[in-house]
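This part of the workshop introduces the protein records we will be handling. A learned vocabulary of local backbone shapes supplies the integers on the structure line. Getting from the letters to the tokens is the skill we practise here. As an example, a complete record with its sequence and its structure tokens follows.
=====
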Amino acid sequence: MKNTWHRSGLRLAAFGAAAALLVGGCASANSESSDSAAATTGLVNVASDAGTAVRGGTVTFGSYSFPNALDPTKTQAAGSNGGTEMAAIYDTLIRTDPETGEFEPQLAESLEHNADYTEFTLKLRDGATFSDGTPVDAEAVKWSIDRFVAAGADIAQVWVNSVASIATPDAETVTFTLTGPWDRFPVMLALGPGMVVSETSQAGGQFTPIGAGPFTLSRFAPNEEIILTPREDYWNGRPNLDKLRFVPTNGARGQLESLQSGQLNAAYLLRDEASIRDALAANYSGYLDIQGLGSLGMINTREGRPGADVRVRQAIAYGVDPEAINNRANDGLGIASSTIVPETSVWNSGAEGVPFDPEKAKQLLDEAKADGYDGKLTYLATSEKTNEAAALTTQASLNSIGFDVRIDYVNSVSDLVRKMYAEHDFDMTRGAFAFMDEAPYLRLYGGLGSDSRNNAAGYADPQMDTLLAAVKSATTADAKKDAIAQVQARANETVPYAVWGASKVFTAWDNNVHGVKRSADNIILFDETWVGQ
């Protein structure tokens, strides 16, 4: 039996009409609080009927992290890091609906699954072509996905672990047979694997961005701008915009000021709570997302590091108050919580995280010291304001219970990433994994899976691996919520990282910009966007 995804797929109602409120409250590690106005996830200040679309105009988008390459095997396909830019060139086979959270066809015609979610059948649109005129057929899609997986980047490892085979029974059909049940598998086709790159992109031995998306690349000047122009032969007709432009930006405050001055028409604002508050107060249109695991104390658990001792990790988790981090780093405007899943998420079951308990923290630290630990800990930080504030707060909190914390500063985020993910040269730092409601397994596995390449802390726990597999294979909402609650309980015991709170993402655009579509992980699609008066 086959089921069309958008009819029988799991609804994520919290994305839209049933979005929850963040309610302020007293300081507590297990309560989500904010001194800012109550926030609601979903579309913000977007007209339900904007009128008839018109052709013409330019949208200039302020990128959060400007991509160095427009290749899904080189750049992570996320809203914060090149996903929106690449989706405009390559499209995505599937997208998520911002109001229901359901998966919907984008470049694909349809996606069906069998009863136990172990096989998915993708139908392609008749007549869809790449920008070079070659057909987007089943073999082309398979070639693009195989290329992505072979490169081993981004979520390729999840694909290898999840997909047993890809079949192309005819030119318009691609069948994915999974290694086990995974109801949220379609999210993979809304991210890097679903960005379809033409085989001709590698002609001549040098990569050229040739995709099936609504725009083609006119100019790519690294660290300066990306200019895209509309395709006349796009499967859904020529996009309305005459030009789509992406530019690098310097933080959320600068993005907001550029929106206000008219230099930008849209921007991706991340983790700057004051700027997001001000953008919402200014009534910009957009999409507000609240992501769990948005503020973490990353602890290196590898042999020879202080965090190899679970008691040290537990002492850190009990010894730092998420509310103190929020007050110092976010001026009290953020979301302080030690839970993996925020209250706004459809997957929130009420499972609690590690409470702030400095006395218990001191007891655990004393036990570790009795076995030879000297209490020394190095915290890696950048000098960026919020990062430094979190570092200083952590240092003061942990020193007060008996740690001896030294802060080492690096020159840039790139240096921090290199030390974390390539060299593993850190004891502790601040990080994030951005829990995705569209597919909770993805980022849980990324930070907790023993064999995950994104697991910078080196955390490995066979029991946690089993629990993560249960999150993936659960095919009902209740079963998945229960599995995630068990992950929370195991994380409380083994402390893979200290959870300090969720983070807000506001993708903002001018009120006269219409037809913007938000997809998985805050990737924005501009194929139907138009600019009004």
Q: What stands out?
A: The longest helix spans residues 477-494. Residues 5-38 have pLDDT under 50 and may be disordered. The longest strand covers residues 285-299. The radius of gyration is 23 Å.
